[in-house]
C-alpha cells in the first residue's frame, strides 16, 4: 500500500472547505430563486399594465438569462463538490483523475473540488 498523502486533519480541512462552499452555493441559489420569483411576479403586473415599458422588459430578460446561467454554473460546481467529497471518502482525493499524479496542495487550497492537476486542465483547454 502506498503511503497516505494527507494527514487526517488536513483532509478534514479540505472537507470543511468543500462543505462551506456547498452551503454558500445553496444559500446563494436560494436567494437567487427568491429574486427570480419577485422579478417574475412584477413582470406579470407590468406586462398587463404598461405594455410600452420595453426597456424594463429587456432588463428583465437579461436578469433572467444571467440567473439561469448562474444556476447552471452552481449546479455544475455542486456536482464537483459532491464528487470531491466522494473522493475523500474513497481516499483518492487530491489525485489527478487524468494522469494520476498528485494535485499540488496550493491548487487544492485555492480550488478544493479540483479534479485535475493544472497541466491536465490546461490540456483539456479550460
Ligand atoms: Zn494531471
Keywords:
mainly alpha, 0% strand, 126 residues, 4 helices, binds zinc ion
Description:
- The protein is an all-alpha fold and 126 residues long.
- It has a domain at 8-94.
- Helices cover 72% and strands 0% of the residues.
- It has helices spanning 8-49, 54-90, 105-110, 118-123.
- The model has no long low-confidence stretch (mean pLDDT 86).
- Bound molecules: zinc ion (ZN).
- The site of zinc ion (ZN) has 8 residues, from helix 4.
How would you summarize this macromolecular structure in one to three sentences?
The chain has helices spanning 8-49, 54-90, 105-110, 118-123.
The largest pleated sheet is described as: none
Instruction: Return Rg in Å.
Output: 21 Å
Mean pLDDT: 86
Helix content: over 70%
Low-confidence stretches: none
| General shape | elongated
User: What is bound: which ligands?
Assistant: zinc ion
Element layout with pairings:
Layout: H1 8-49, H2 54-90, H3 105-110, H4 118-123
Amino acid at each position: 500500500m502506498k503511503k497516505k498523502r494527507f494527514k487526517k486533519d488536513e483532509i478534514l480541512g479540505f472537507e470543511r472547505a468543500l462543505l462551506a462552499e456547498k452551503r454558500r452555493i445553496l444559500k446563494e441559489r436560494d436567494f437567487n430563486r427568491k429574486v427570480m420569483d419577485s422579478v417574475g411576479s412584477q413582470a406579470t403586473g407590468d406586462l398587463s399594465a404598461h405594455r410600452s415599458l420595453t426597456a424594463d422588459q429587456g432588463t428583465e430578460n437579461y436578469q433572467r438569462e444571467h440567473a439561469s446561467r448562474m444556476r447552471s454554473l452552481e449546479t455544475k460546481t455542486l456536482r464537483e463538490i459532491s464528487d470531491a467529497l466522494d473522493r475523500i471518502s474513497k481516499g483518492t482525493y487530491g489525485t489527478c483523475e487524468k494522469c494520476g499524479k498528485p494535485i499540488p496542495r496550493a491548487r487544492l487550497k485555492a480550488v478544493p473540488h479540483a479534479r485535475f492537476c493544472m497541466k491536465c486542465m490546461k490540456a483539456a483547454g479550460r
